[in-house]
Amino acid sequence: MSLETFHASSALSMGVELELQLVGEHDRDLASAATDLLELAQRTRFPGDIKPEMTDCMIEVATDIQDRHASLLKQLEAMRDMLLAASARLNVSLCGGGTHPFQHWTERRIFSTPRFQHLSGLYGYLAKQFTVFGQHVHIGMPDADSALRVLHALNRYVPHFIALSASSPFSQGSDTLFDSARLNSVFAFPLSGRAPFVLDWGRFERDYFSKMEDTGIVRSMKDFYWDIRPKPEYGTIELRVCDTPLTVERAAAIAVYLQALCFSILAGDEPDPLEDDYLVYTYNRFQACRFGLDGLMVHPRSHAALPLRDDIALTLERLAPAADALGSRAALESLHRMVRGGGNDATRLRAVHARSRNLLAVVDDAVAAFAQ
Amino acid sequence: MVFEAGRIFELVGWPAVLLTAWLAGELAHRGLGVPRVCAYSLAGIVSSALNTVQADAETTAALSFLANFALGLFLFELGHRINLRWLVNNPWLLVSGIAESLLTFFVVRGIALAMGQPDDIAMVLGALSVATSPAALVRVVNDLRCSGQVTERALHLCAINCLISVLLMKGAIGYWQLLESGSLVNALWNSAAILAVSVGCGILIGIPLPWLLRRLRADERGVTTVFALAVMLVTLLTQGVNVSPLLAALTLGILIRRRKLLLTPAQRNFGVLGDLLTVFLFVFVAGMATWPTTATALALAVLMSAGRIAAKVAATAAFAHVSGTSTRKGSLTGFALAPLSTFALLLLEYSRSAGFGLAEGALSAIAGMVIVMEFVGPLFAQWALMLAGEAQHEERA
To answer: Given this model, what pLDDT does residue B187 score?
Structure first.
C-alpha cells in the first residue's frame, strides 16, 4: 500500500478525537467496560464517532468536521452527555486526564481486534503501558504542500500544547514530577518523534515514505506516531501531543488555539520553517512535559530562554485578530486566564492530592470535572 | 489439667484440616483451574465424614462466631461494592433482581412441593435458595480479578437476593410463629424488629467510623484493620441481641462506601486475614452439610439445584436488554449467581438456635442441594465470568 493521495479539505476545518478513561465506581481503578459502553452507545444514534482503543478500559470519541468553536463545543458536550447517560446505566464513570493515577499496567487487557492484538504482539509490554489518554486535533489543509509547511512551522508551538493540556502528573501510584507523564509512554515507540524535514509532498512521498515502505517497517501513515503527522486521506494535519484535558471545554479551547495558529501560518504571518528550528525541539518538549507552564523554552531563532507561560500568553495576544475572524475569541481568552491564573489540569490534580493525600480523591475530582 | 490437655488435642485437628484444605485449594486452582473454594468445601465434607474434629458445645459456639465473622467480612466487602445510585440510574436492574429472587423462590418451592415436601418446609427451601453465596462469589471474583458488566451485575444482584432471602426467611419464620402462637402482631413484630435492629447495628458503627478514620488519616493497612475490627464488633453486637450479623455487615459496607472510604485493590479480600478465614469458613460450613441418604433426597437436591439455576438465568436474561446489556451477558450473570451454601446454612443454623422448629427438617432437605451447589456453584460462576471475558488471564512470559 503506497501513500494515499492527499485529499484537500476545507481549510481550517477541525476534528477532535478524545481518548477517555473508564473508571470503576467502587474502587476508582480502570474498569474493563469498553465493549459494554460501545454496545449501549450504539443502540441509539451517537452524536459523533465512538470506537475502542488499545486496552478495554479506554474508548475514543471523535467529532464530525467542524468550522467554529461554538459548533465544536456543542458536539463535544452532546457526546459527553450521551456517554455519561450510558455509563450511568453500566455503573462506570468516565473521565479525562492523560494517565490514570494508580492503575497497574500489568492488569490491562488488550482489546480484542486483530490490529490491537498485532500491535500487542509487536510491542509487548509497551502496548499495555500505552494505556494513556490523549487528545488529537485535526486541522484541514488546502493542499499537501501547505500541510507540510504548516506542520513544520508549528514545531516551535508544540510545547505550548503539551503544557496547556498536561493532565497526567501521576502514574502507577506515584507523582512523576512531570506535568505530562503520558508523553513518556509515547516516546518509547520506535516511530515516535517528529516528521522528517521535507516541505514538498512529492519529495516526501518519493524520498521518505517510499523508502521507509521498502524497508518493510511501515505500511501506512498510521504506523508513524509523530507529534504532528499529515493525514492524507482526511486532508489534514493531526496534532497528537495533547493529554486529554479534564473538561470538554478545555479540549475545544485547545483545538481552536491550533486552528488560530494554522490560520496565522497559512496567512503568511509566521516565518518559514527551517530544519535548524528542530535543534531545540526535544529540549523544549521535555521542559513542557516536565514543568508544564513553568517550563523554560529556548526560542529556535533568537535562542533566548523564556518561560512557556509568557510565550503562550504573548502568542494568544498576537492571535486575537485571527480568533476574531474564526469566532474563537472567548475560548482563547479562557486559555489566557488559565495561563495567567490557576494553571493547567496537572496543577489542579496535584492540589487535590495535596489536600487529600489520596489518589482515589484525584480520580473522583477528574470524574466530577468531566461531568460538569 | 488432664481435661484441658485432652481438649487441646481434640482441637489440633483443625489446623491440620485447614492446611490440607489450603493445599487442596492451590492444587485445584493451579492444576485443574477449579475455584479454590470448591476444594475447601471438599476438605470440609471429607473431614466431617471422617469425624476428624470433635468439638463440644462451647467450642462450636466459638467456631460459629468465627464463621459469622468471616462471612461478615465478605458481606462487608460486597456491601462496599454496592452502588445504590446505580439502582436508581438503572431501575431495570433492581426489577431484574427482584424478579430473579421471586422466580427462584416460586420455582424451588414448586419443585419441593411436587416432590412431596410439606408446605412450610418447601417455603423455607424456596427462601433459602434465593440467596447467592456472597462468600463464594466475592472470592471467585477476587481470585480471577474480574472486572466488567457480568461481575458488577452479579455482585449487585447477589446483595439484592441475599436481602430478599433474609426477608422471605423471616416471613417463613413469622408464618410459622403465626401458626404456633396464633398472633399475627407477634409474627410481624418479630420479622420487622430483627430487620430493623440488624440494620441499626450496622448504622451504629457505620456512621462514626468514617469520621474517626478521616480524623486519624489512617493509611490503607490501618483502614483495613479498622474495617475488620468493625465487622467483628457488629458480629458480636448482633449475635448478642440475637439478630442477623450478616445484614448488619452488609449495611456497614454500604455505609462506608457512601462515605467514600474505599478498600484499595491491594486490600481486597482483607489480605492474609481474609485468606485464612475463607479457608476456615468453607471448611466449617461444608462440614455442617450431610449427604442425601436416599435416591429421592438426591433427586430432590438435583432438581432443586437445576430449577434454581434455570430460574436465575431465565430472569436475568429476560431483563438483560432493558437494563442495558446483551442477552448473552444477562444469561451469564444468571449463571454467576449459582453459588449457594454458606449463607443458607448459617441462616438455618441461626434460626435453629432461635427456636425455629422447622429448621431441623429444612436442614436435612436442603443438605443435598448444598452438597451439589458447593461444587457446581463456584464452577458455574467462574465459567460464566470467564466466558464473559471478564477474568484476568494470567499471561506467562
So the answer is: 63
Instruction: Judge: A26–B325 Cβ closer than 8 Å, yes or no.
Output: no
Is B90's CB within 8 Å of A88's CB?
yes
Inform me whether the pLDDT recorded for B395 exceeds 50: no
ipTM above 0.85, yes or no: no
Q: Which of B301, B364, B348 is nearest to B173 (CA)?
A: B348
What fold does the segment set A14-371 form as a domain? Creatine Kinase; Chain A, domain 2 (3.30.590)
| Partner-chain contact B326 A39, CB within 8 Å | yes
Contact B392, A107 (CB under 8 A): yes
Residues 6+ away with beta carbon under 8 Å from A361: A352, A353, A355
Q: Supply the mean pLDDT for chain A.
A: 92
d(CA B221, CA A327): 54
For the whole model, what pTM was predicted? 0.87
Q: Are residues B83 and A91, on separate chains, in Cβ contact within 8 Å?
A: yes
CA distance B264 to chain A (A): 6
CB A47 within 8 A of CB A75: yes
CATH topology of domain B60-282+291-387: Na+/H+ antiporter like fold (1.20.1530)
Domain extent listing, chain A: 14-371
| Interface residue B217 vs chain A (CB under 8 A) | yes
**What are the C-alpha distances in Å from A179 to residues A188, A208, A240, A350?**
18, 34, 16, 9
Q: Are A288 and A166 in contact (CB under 8 A)?
A: yes
Q: Which of B85, B215, B262, B385 to mutate to test the interface with A (most CBs of A within 10 A)?
A: B262
Which of A342-351, A362-371, B288-297 has the lowest average pLDDT?
A: B288-297
Per-residue pLDDT at B57 exceeds 80: no
Distance between CA atoms of A280 and B260, rounded to whole angstroms? 46
